[in-house]
Each structure stands twice: as structure tokens, then as C-alpha cells.
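User: Could you check the structure of this?
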Amino acid sequence: MEGSFVQQLMQFLLSPLGITSCVLSLVLVVQARRARRAAWLLFTLCCFAASLGVYQDEFVRQAPALVFPLEQLRAAGRPLTVILLGMLLLTGFYPQMGWRASVLPRPVKFLLLVQAVIFLKTLFYGSALFALLTATTIGALVLMVYLGPSRWLQRELDFRLAVWSVAMVAVFFLGLNLYQAIFDVYPISFVQGRFLGTTGNPQHAAALLAGIVPCLIFMVEARPNSTGSKAFWLITLALTMFALLWTGSRTGLLMAAVTILFFYRLRAGQLLRIVLLMAVVAAIALAALNYYGFDWRDIAMPLQDRYASFANTRNEVWTSLWRSFQGNLIFGTPLQGDRLFGYGESSWLGAAAALGLVGLIPLCLAGLESLRMMVQLFQLSRQQPAYFYHASTVLAGLATLFVGSLFEAYLLGNLGANILLLYFYWALGQYLVDVKEYAVASAAGSNVHRATHYLASRTMPRTMLANRGKMP
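Assistant: Sure, the predicted C-alpha cells are below.
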């Protein structure tokens, strides 16, 4: 398995698509020295590449092919993600100064412990080569977060560029799948009529889209955009919600509901306004589809029974995971094969069954640290109304992804789109927590210099204190 991946990576690097991808990525790396937007665009491309996957199960061994070049992109999703991750690492080594040094969010450290348990178990009882490849990938990912987003987030503009980068993942995803639908919609909806797009299955598509919704709402509500720009992001949000409904995923709808709850907890009037606007956009889109001979009932009818059903489709899997955990409390189920896989349909029960308490405890600590961060952000949204949408974006993003993790095992992955989004929201949250601490220090101190020194002493090496940039 690991040998085939290395071979696939080398083949991709030598292919026309691989060479083109490397050249374009290097152009963005060079541009990132002068324009931060280029660095964030690399993050966009990395997230999109990490979402690529091919559907397979016991009944479908060969998924229907996509049109060129989507089939080639989907087949090379993993190598492309690794290349883009490497390019992001290159941008992270650019020298940068600011009031925030490289700060690794605390939840990342506990999730890294979970991956360490997976690494050690695979190393001693499975494939040593696969364990080393996984450790290299995780190390590169964490280092990218440490040197990249944690240092890029220095001011208000950086926060907006970060949110823009994730919102652009939806633009790429929807645009390329619309391109596929123009030729043939079947390859992106052949699983029981549910939308899976260029991802591995409808659940993955739903989790990806739901994780992006907080950033899209921020783009609609918080940015001082022109009317045309707001209209663009509103249309993108409406199409994202349409695609999310089309996945037939009740987990995805629950995740989206959590986002709406956190964003509009004190703004019911704004929620009504945006729902009405999205309804208008949806009506226009359906009218346009009908004009070109597309019947919306072809989508609605297969999904009607699924959304109306209250059957627990995960009960059998969850019961099996719980029994495995009870039988192997400390170290989890003994490894069978070269690596750990098949965590089931829950990050938490999957960790308990596969890793035992040794892996479950640090995962719970990561959750508790995330909850602590969310409490601080909730306080920031109340104390500093100007940061309401900033804090709500991270609150909604973290809450959405952790709710989804109850039903999907992406927290145990090493390079999926949703784990990238989780690291992203942690980095945004750490930035806002630093802003909050600076505000508290400013109020407590006698002057701005004293507050600046307070925060800098906690986030910067002493050798950098003399080179501080402007505070937010």
C-alpha cells in the first residue's frame, strides 16, 4: 500500500498534470513573498485537493469516470495534496515579523498525541514504512500550521484573507462540479441519486460543504463588500446549501444547523433576510435548470424518503465499536494487517475501539481545549461587538466540525479536507484569543507599551521583542 503511494507520487510528478501543478504552485510560492493572498490561495488548493476521492464499496469497484481533467485530478488527489502541502511549507519559511510569533494552538498538541499513538501502534505491530510515511505527513501538516497560518494571522486583513481562502474552496468545488454536470451529472450523483461530487462519497461531500459554510456566511455578512461581491458570495452560499441538501446527509444538515445557531443566535432578523435571499437565488437557479430540461424532482424524489426516515443507520457500527473498546480498554483492538483503518462512523468511538484509553484521552483533551477556546471567543463576541462575526465564524466552524466528528471519523485522518479545516479554525481561534488577551492587557495596563510587552512576552522569543510590528 505504502509502496504504491510512493510510486503513484513519482508517476504524478513526472506526468504533464504533475509538472503543470508544480510549476503553478511554485509561482504562487514566489508570489507569496510579496502578496499574502497567494499563500492563502495555496491553502485553498490544498484543501480542495485533500477533498478529492473515488467512491468504492462492495458493489461499486469502478466509479463512473469524470470528464477531462477532473478524472485525472481525482485520481491524483493524494499526491497533489502532498505537493501543495510541501509548497505551503516553503512559504512558511519566509522570514516574517509581527506582534504574534508562531503559536501552535493547544488543541493541535493533543491531537498530535493521538497521531503519535497511531504511529507507535502501526510501527510496532504493522508496517514500519507506512508508519513513517504517516508520521512524515502529520509532521509536515503540523509544521505548516506552525509556520504558516499561525504566523500569517497578524492583523484584520489577514483574518479576512484566511476566511476568503476557505470560502474559495467552495467556489472551486462547486465550479468544477458544475462543469462536470454540464456534460453528465450521473458520475457525481450515481450513489442512490445523492450528490458526492469529486469527493469519495456523499458523506464526505456534506462534511466538506458544512465545514465551509461558516466562512461563506462571514463573507456575506461581515465584509465591507460592494453589492456585486456580496451577491457573488450569497449565490455561492445558496449553491453550497443546495449541494448540501443534495448529498442526502442528515449529518451534513445537522452541521449546517449548528453553524446557523452560532451565527444568528442574537440576529433572528438577519437570519430571516438571508434565508429569503437564498430562496430567491434557489428559485432562479431551479428556473434556469428547468429551462435547460432539468427536472428538480429527479433530485428531490430519491432524497425525500431519506430525510423523512428516522432510522439509526449507524447503530450497528457504533455497537460494534463500543464492544471492541470494552474488550480492549487500554490499547484498543489488536492491529490486523499493515495499518489501522476502518475507524467506523465516529471519531470518538473509532478512537476508543482502535486506540483504547491511550488514544481516547488525548482526543478528549483536544476537545476540552477546543471548548475552552470557544468559551473565550464567546466572551470576545460579547465584549467586543466589532469581533462578533469573527468569533462566530470560529465558534460555528469548531462546533460544526466536532458535531460532525460524532458521526464521521475524520479526526483520526492525517490529510483529509476536514482535518485541514479543523487546524484552520484552531489557528483563527488562537489569533482571536491573542487579540482578546491584548485587549485585556491594554485595559489593565497604564499605557499601550505595557500591554504590548505583556502579550509579546507570552507569544514571542525575547530576541524578537525589539522587532514587533503593529498591533491589530
